[in-house]
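Dig into these lines:

——
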Amino acid sequence: MSVKPFTIGGAQYNAAMASAVDQDRLMSLLSGAVLERFATAAQAGIEVDDQLLCSMFMSMRQDVKSQVVQILMTRVFINGTERAVTVADFGGKMVQYNQLLAELLRWNLSDFFDWLPSGAKGARQDGAESAAQ
């Protein structure tokens, strides 16, 4: 099991990576939204970063966000404790909560985010070749 520390707003959290099954669920739940934001950002010359992902979480439908949070936050603990972190730990700090979700998502689906530039480039090249014919 892979564990990684995250520091948000001066607090450190330790997170265990989601299982492959849960990562696949995350991909199914969020890849459309991420791809849409990536395409929009690419047109504007902006890199998809944690800030863009944070805004995605801020505007996400609550039913979808609840499912995503269940996957991402199941094994997140305040550093040095075995107390699970919940949204209640972020009262008055919703931006920090969404920043943590964004960083957890990028880590859990790192291969997807690594693939994004090459996948999008390939799609653009295929489209250009089709238009040229």
Q: What stands out?
A: The mean pLDDT is 88. Helices lie at 20-43, 50-58, 62-72, 94-108, 110-132. DSSP finds five helices and three strands in the chain. The first strand starts at residue 3 and ends at 8.
